Amino acid sequence: MKRLLLIEDSKVDAMEAQAAVELDAPGEFEFTICRTIKEALNLLQNKYFDLISLDLNLPDAQRLTGLVQLEEYAKSTPLVVMTGENEPALGLEAISLGAQDFLVKGASSYGKLLARVFNHAIERKKLTALSMQTLELEHKVLNEALKQSQLLVIQIGRAHV
């Protein structure tokens, strides 16, 4: 079961999202609900989540400020933004700031869409982490090869003296 932190100040919206996902993906997600960014940041100090879902209008964060705070604090956790506002430019900005996806609440086939987006966000973040690990390994291998070639050049230079 995937652990999901849902940051949503509206009890109705939180219950609707949870019920929609449970209907279309039963038993796939365990929900923890927070009403503020502060509450979420406190919870993230001691608890791991596979995914964070963030409402953009909270009592202590408006628009993208909550996303920026969470992205700084939980970089390795995929984050999906949910809002009642249908603003494509805001969605693109959220993605450029680190969100894996952007959803407008209450869209048709909401549960299937939420479950799909949540699962895809987790997988994309895993692929990103794997890509970074691969790049780091390639960097180490290339650095080691460079060191070895420099040593070989020094040894050849000493042999000719």
Q: What does this molecule look like?
A:
With 161 residues, the chain is of the alpha/beta class. The protein contains five helices and seven strands. It has helices at residues 11-24, 37-44, 65-73, 88-96, 110-159; strands spanning 2-7, 29-34, 51-55, 57-58, 61-62, 79-83, 101-104. Helix 1 (11-24) packs across helix 5. The longest helix is centred in the C-terminal third of the chain and has 50 residues, at 110-159. The model has no long low-confidence stretch (mean pLDDT 83).
Give the topology.
Layout: E1 2-7, H1 11-24, E2 29-34, H2 37-44, E3 51-55, E4 57-58, E5 61-62, H3 65-73, E6 79-83, H4 88-96, E7 101-104, H5 110-159
Parallel strand pairs: 1-2, 1-3, 3-6, 6-7
Antiparallel strand pairs: 4-5
Helix pairs in contact: 1-5
Summarize the structure.
With 161 residues, this protein is α/β, with parallel strands linked by helices. The protein has five helices and seven strands; from the N terminus they run E-H-E-H-E-E-E-H-E-H-E-H.
